[in-house]
Design goal:
Oligomer: single chain
Order of helices and strands: HEEEEEEEEEEEEEEEE
Mean pLDDT: 90
CATH superfamily: monomeric porin ompg
Shape: globular
Number of strands: 16
Largest sheet: 12 strands, antiparallel, barrel
Strand content: over 45%
Distance between the termini: 10 Å
CATH topology: Porin
Strand order of the largest sheet: 1-2-3-5-6-9-10-11-12-13-14-16
Structural class: mainly beta
CATH class: Mainly Beta
CATH architecture: Beta Barrel
Radius of gyration: 19 Å
Length: about 280
């Protein structure tokens, strides 16, 4: 395994917990990377559309996520990504289950050399209904069912584009810079995003990756939609990943991400530590 292929594998390990295709490197023709991971967020810390912090009953979100990147040619990679199972609930409600938005797209090599660059375009397909209600465990008003909408999908087709540039400073350091635009339908607000990721080889086969990224929504968001649909969501996220390459083909990783107001204030988001664990296979 070359150092660039090893670094590419490490980047995929980190990116799958967030958004895919955020590096300038591509898989060679016939090579691929796959990962199965699980993630959990549990918090009572909610920021509404106005950016005000509200304490609610505890919200729990659990997902099982699959990712695949495959080299179709020397210039194009196939991308598949998405939650194959998403479970959501509050401590006072039942849970909802479903398949999250599944992304399918292509990644194109713009430049090679010391500063490889790539552009990706992916469609996110809604595979679950927009109405999935979690019912309150206690009936507060006789004869009336108290419930909240917790859909696994945002219910709309959107197209996400990403431009990424990477550089390997040595066999120990690399950095990637990325920006993106998410075109949303059904009248939902478009989104812009960007960030930086830095990786360092701690010891043989063990990388520490740090990431800072942000998201902004454009226009005036619609009111009255479930927060799960992502309308008007803004945030700054900081994340760290430990990624260990067990063998030439197999890898393990642990990730943690949390949110703050450093670059963009939190809006319409449950904010707390999100934890991920995954196993990967590359060929």
């Amino acid at each position: 395994m070359t150092i660039h292929h090893f670094i590419f594998t490490i980047i995929c390990c980190c990116s799958c917990a967030l958004l895919p295709a955020q590096s300038g490197w591509l898989q060679d023709k016939g090579q691929g990377y796959s990962q199965l991971s699980s993630g959990r967020l549990s918090t009572d810390n909610y920021y509404n559309l106005s950016g005000d912090q509200v304490t609610t009953t505890r919200y729990d979100s659990y997902s099982i996520n699959a990712y695949l990147e495959y080299g179709l040619s020397s210039s194009f990679n196939l991308l598949l990504n998405g939650p194959v199972l998403r479970r959501q609930s509050f401590t006072t409600t039942s849970a909802t289950y479903g398949i999250g938005d599944v992304s399918i797209g292509l990644k194109y090599k713009l430049a090679a050399g010391r500063w490889p660059a790539a552009f990706s375009l992916a469609a996110e397909l809604p595979l679950s209904p927009t109405e999935q209600f979690a019912v309150n465990n206690e009936q507060l008003v006789p004869g009336i069912t108290d419930q909240i909408n917790l859909p696994a999908s945002d219910g709309e087709l959107n197209v996400r584009s990403t431009l990424a540039v990477s550089h390997s400073f040595s066999d120990q350091w690399y950095a990637s810079f990325f920006s993106g635009f998410n075109f949303r339908t059904e009248g939902l607000s478009h989104q812009v995003s960007g960030g930086v990721e830095i990786g360092y080889l701690l010891v043989d086969q063990l990388y520490l990756i740090g990431r800072l990224n942000t998201q902004l929504s454009l226009g005036t968001p619609q009111n009255g939609l479930s927060f799960v649909r992502g309308e008007g969501v803004e945030y700054t996220a900081v994340g760290f990943t430990l990624s260990y390459q067990v063998s030439e083909n197999w890898g393990l990783n642990l990730s943690a991400t949390t949110y703050n107001d450093l670059l963009a204030s939190r809006r319409n988001i449950y904010s707390g530590p999100a934890l991920y664990a995954g196993v990967s296979y590359s060929w």
